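re the bet — no i am not wrong, look at it urself. input seq straight from the record:
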Amino acid sequence: MLFYVLARKTYARNLQYRGAHLINTIASSLFGFIYISIWAAIASDQPLGEYGRAGIISYVAFNQCSLWVAAFLTNGLGIEQSVRTGGIALELMRPTHLFYQLMCKEWGQIAYQFIYKFLPIYALYAVVIPIYMPHKLVTWLATAAALLLAGYISICINYIIGAAALWTTESRWLYWVNHAFSTLLSGFLIPLEWLPQPLAFIARWSFYPSMNYIPTRIYLGMSSPSLLVGSVAWAVLLTVLCLGLTSIMRRKVEVQGG
């Protein structure tokens, strides 16, 4: 029940800013068209391996949509702001676990962005481009599972980034460092197999492919749903890390204000 209430409240709060969010949706779709145009131009001279022209266009288009599930989350889940105001002390005293509270709220944010950003951009690309669509129900279900895991992993990472604010002046810089690594190593801009070998090796042993590369490969039918095993493993590991970090936060709280 608490999960539903917190998620619904966050979802309802976002509904008040639909006009402003519409601009973001339009801008995101335009950026997607720019990336698609670049890859379409490259495909005119290069075979692009198993992707081909149609495949790489669908790859880029679906990645652009999935950003609103796996990447564009609340910076540090709002922990940094709570540290600055001193509200983090009260949050940690609540009977409900801090990680669970913030995770529930963020799922409301993700649900809103899925409905009002992911789906409209996807529908636009499906009509205008059009992009590849799976023909099997199992592929749709595996893609949905991959996106849910991507969203959860991103929640965990942002929680860890936010928690760092208790020991530093601020953790916003970590958010942007994570964003930079995610852009490069998640397969968003370029498929992992085309990265230089050192980067490709690092990427495949990190959690970043679970956020873009794996959901998109499964969606395109180019990879088996068995790839989700790695995503599940990272989700479990990051959950343990978040819970352990919260335990440390309860024992020592350094507030930068309030």
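see?? Residues 32 and 61 are 6 Å apart (CA to CA). told u. also The two ends are 32 Å apart (CA to CA). so pay up
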